[in-house]
């Protein structure tokens, strides 16, 4: 007996994930105001050009930012949230087909590379400078 639903497990779609996220969503607003590309320059000495490809440092940083913004303290829980939440997935630069880094890779990157680079302090200062140059109402509630 057929219940009227069709199976769509192999359906392919081409879409821009940002279209699924309301324009007043916090992550959309952050994305419009802040470019995180400067992180590549800060971390360049910690990512050699040879060897296995590494996880994108901007994506990793954005994952951590999502954790702070939404009060997610566990890296396992953070990875799960990025996997399931379309807005978080999009903000961190992951498409539907992309694998989200495992929590252990996330922990190792943060501890081994980022603590040495003082990334967090440098990013905070860069964002502070950006906000001073272009004041915005990023943290105000959307109407």
Overview of the molecule:
With 143 residues, the protein is an all-alpha fold. It has a domain at 23-40 and 54-133. It is built from seven helices and no strands. It has helices at 26-33, 38-43, 57-69, 75-84, 86-91, 103-117, 119-133. Helix 3 crosses helix 4 (75-84) and helix 4 (75-84) crosses helix 6. The radius of gyration is 18 Å and the shape is globular. The model has no long low-confidence stretch (mean pLDDT 80).
Proportion of helical residues? 40-55%
Mean pLDDT over the full residue set: 80
Enumerate the spans where pLDDT stays under 50 for 5 or more consecutive residues: none
Shape: globular
SSE run:
HHHHHHH
> What is the first-to-last residue Cα distance?
48 Å
Largest sheet, in brief, is: none
DSSP strand content:
under 5%
Count of helical stretches: 7
Strand tally: 0
List the helices and strands and how they pair.
Elements: H1 26-33, H2 38-43, H3 57-69, H4 75-84, H5 86-91, H6 103-117, H7 119-133
Helix pairs in contact: 3-4, 4-6
Give a concise summary.
It is built from seven helices and no strands. By secondary structure, the protein is mostly helical.
List the keywords.
143 residues, mainly alpha, 7 helices, 0% strand, globular
